[in-house]
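Re: that chain you flagged

S.,

Sorry for the slow reply, it's been a week of failed gels. I finally had a moment to sit down with the sequence you sent. For the record, here it is as I used it:
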Amino acid sequence: NPCCSSGPPLSIDWTYYTFAPTTSREKAASLDPVNGKNSVKTELRIPVDAYEKARGERMPTHHLILSREKREEMLLASGYTPNDFATVVRNMIRIKNQRRQTVDNLWAESMEERLERIRKGFSRLCGRKKGKSRYLYDKWQRSKGVETNSTSSFSKGGIFYK
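Prediction finished late last night. Pasting the structure tokens below so you have them in one place:
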């Protein structure tokens, strides 16, 4: 998600950490019902009321924003290198530019669709498939034993019998 104004985001990739169940009840719940084997869960289920009591006051949004320096410090502590930062920032810039281009071109979308419909209609009117229909007509006539002159038109009597 390239929403950082500068520097690398904290979510460089999609890897996540799993945790093993701790209580016997969680261990029983983690058994796969199909084969009975233990499967590691990647989710924690808490009743909504318990979560609401424990979570405390919401933080203002300006407290949720981390500075570039703080994000880089956290990522360096997690084992990422400045080269990783540069790669991610380049990808972020590319994605931001693609999104900006999409937004900038939205106004022209309806015009492009109209032009495409006009182009299709024009090609139908101009008889672009005329050559193919002539070819099929000639093939049909040959199958009946009639030879055709493919350079002449239908109205000029371009059919010669053997």
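What I noticed first: The beta strands are 146-148, 159-161.

Talk soon,
D.
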